[in-house]
């Protein structure tokens, strides 16, 4: 970690972030080669822009089908805080895109689901991947669910 930087409370340490960066890069290569699945889940590459840095970011995330070509993603991970990719996505929603296996990045409109919309989507996600529901049950925060709709 660079001098003067502090670790976020409740977030991963420097070694964990380094390992995650390596794993993400490997998964991104797989998705670009048309092999977009991990642990039984479909994966896409989420393109965001750093909230503070303004730098482009690419993060592999599991997705679940939704209405008319939209995809649902869950902001799991990140410890007691939402993951950085979610913070970046919400800060610069107008600059987001998704890249499906073997395809080009497509601009998307992200919508954080709330209330009954989130509950209905969560029920489908948990049925498709009980592992995510198990992680949620062990977390102090409610995982945000985001609908990505191609623009």
Automatic annotation (TrEMBL):
This is Deazaflavin-dependent oxidoreductase (Nitroreductase family). PANTHER family: F420H(2)-DEPENDENT QUINONE REDUCTASE RV1261C (PTHR39428). It catalyses: oxidized coenzyme F420-(gamma-L-Glu)(n) + a quinol + H(+) = reduced coenzyme F420-(gamma-L-Glu)(n) + a quinone. It holds the Pfam family F420H2_quin_red. It comes from the Bacteria. Belongs to the F420H(2)-dependent quinone reductase family. GO terms for cellular component: plasma membrane. One of its GO terms (molecular function) is coenzyme F420 binding.
